[in-house]
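Structure, all two chains, one model.
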Amino acid sequence: MAMKKKHQRLVLALIALVAVIGAGLLAASALKDEAAYFYTPEDAKVKGVEPGKAIRLGGMVVGGSLKKQADGVTIAFDVTDGKAVVPARFTGIAPDLFREGSGVVAEGSFDRNGTFVATNLLAKHDERYMPRELEGMTYNATSHEMKAQ
Amino acid sequence: MIAELGLAALWMAAALAALQLLFSVLGLAQGKAELLSGVRPVAIAQGVLVLLAFLCLVALFWRSDMSVALVALNSHSAKPWLYKFAGAWGNHEGSMLLWVTVMGAAGAAVALFERALRRDTHMATLGAQAAISLGFYAFLLFSSNPFARLDPAPRDGQGLNPLLQDPGLAFHPPTLYFGYVGLSVAFSFAVGALVTRRVDALFARAMRPWVLAAWVLLTIGITAGSYWAYYELGWGGWWFWDPVENASLMPWLAATALLHSVTVLATRDALRAWTVMLAVVAFSMSMVGTFLVRSGILTSVHAFAVDPERGSFILALLAIYIGGALALFALRVGTVREGAQFELVSREALLVVNNLLLTVILGVVLIGTLYPLMTEAFGHKVSVGPPYFDRIAGPLALALMLAMVAGPLTRWRRDRAGVVGGRLIWPLLAMLGAGAVLGVLAHGRLSLLSFFGLVIAVGVALGSVIPLFKRNLRRTPLFVYGMVIAHLGCAVSIAGMASDSAFTTEKLIAMAPGDRVESAGWTLHFDRVAPLAGDNWIAMQADVSVSRGGAKAVLHPQSRFFTSPPTTTTESAILTRWNGQLYVVLGEQLEDGRWQMRIWWKPFVTLIWLGGLMIALGGVLTLIGRERRGWMLRLRKGSAARGTGEEWA
């Protein structure tokens, strides 16, 4: 089992190299499958997202679209980027700053009817916080006017 | 006056760092002993001055001196005293000042207490430490001055982000920073040894306590941060693979690898170049983490300010230090002679496996963390989340656990595969047994990762105490206990993670006062909800009576509203039992008067943090066990004893 003495250092260096390359390949393969792509409603409409695929959907909550279901913990709302509108549903305690007209990044997947079922909502965290994906978007909840830079 | 005193102290500390670097470089280059003898006093003075600057900032926050811009922006006179105090580092400038303070203090400690290192390497190390500090002093003084005045002074401040207003703020950032920045000492040691071409067992023995201390603090900081996020965010999760969490995990992974490789170098004089490389990588990860968190490139509760100039500044520092160290490594690695050999079946070989797995996990986490930033530069918005990290890091971590069972049961240098196999028989049988029991009891309810997590935790728990079998327990060295407890802590922590993800029950419901609900064997009665006022917040607080079997308690989840800045936070209520935690969150009130309530029962979730603390305790015991003799000797002999030769070229 003895390693050839002369070559031990070389062998160790090669193993380290293989490990680093292995890490890169492993990461690349997983990124291909798991990187939850960020979609705006327009992206989702144009590109199409297969039901069940985990993604992030980001946009603004359309004014007047927020509806509470009878169970008290499920809400339905529409998400827009000014170009397209996607219906969404969420069961859980919505973040404190989640409201009509505010920005939201929803994590989840589309169901077969084209409704986005969110498992997690990221809203504006405090007055100085904005989900990174939404930087540059502004939206007027009453006039439904949308600006994206 | 305090602000001016602080600023002056900061400038003087920076000047002393420059002097320290100069003395060290000139002294070593020209072999001038009188220059070198100035290095240590200067390093100590620098540490004292930067500490003074930091205390000045704390005093300004304490007194709510609103004429200082930083205080006005981040504090408020109505804040409870603890947050006035801790608020000093709950912001960008203050936290960077804490960073250089720790770095200066660490440099002073190396100057004061390091005795085992050769003198020339010691001086080169202090020079390297000064060089790093200098960059961060420049960053503070030129782009993040914490002492800038505001004229006219506002009547009152804007207040601290309420999410930070928690006792956790008082100790989570400092411990994490001590660990983060403590790794700069390992980095400086590596640079020092490369400069003087003395990478050997002696160097490793000198570096080991510093690495251990930094690693212990990093472990505590991460454990505390995880628990803080768990109860403060009210999401019931303890780790979110948030880039900022990854920023603290990556140095920890590198430091853990370093800790094991430095032991190989100290004990067996093998893995020389690799250990030096890891020391460079570990602190580089600290700086990458700082860059991610402080540049404003990420948005999170940790990113206090979005300022591209600061981001570029830190990026430049990063490039200079990491690039410089790697260039030095490339130049000098040829002069690092090959260390001692070892066989394929040996403890060294298994520690190589440990190092490789940790490095691969580090690489995977690093890529996953940076990937969204890189793609965004090309106009793609991508987010990488828990599915990616769980899928890769999970199995790799479990593989690492298996190596952890075998490592301590294998001899240094050479062992026989059959003999090692014989020692592994009990852990293997225990894992088979645990697998069979789980397979029958929880068939189909467990994910693969949870199943293997629980099974391997059993194996690691048993395997980690085997090194104590047949030993005289009173004569067993303390560092063996340290290793056993740290490894046992890993098993405990993994078991907690697996149990939480496999057996947690969650209930989401809208309830009116007077309603009753059952969940996971608990009966929860929503007694009432009433308003409550705090120092700088008002809240709606619910009384929820919970009972299971003979156990009874009343929980008080809150929905809290802060006035400055205006923010609502949910304060979860947690009941800790020996076998798990009941976690209740109060949501918002519906129009019909009902309240949203989220209830979790998390069996054995506390093991996660208990394991983390055990890992840290193991580190402390190892540190004491390894260094006690040296400390005692020094106490007796005063400061006379110095490791080895005084010859330097």
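Residues 201-233 of chain B form the longest helix (33 residues).
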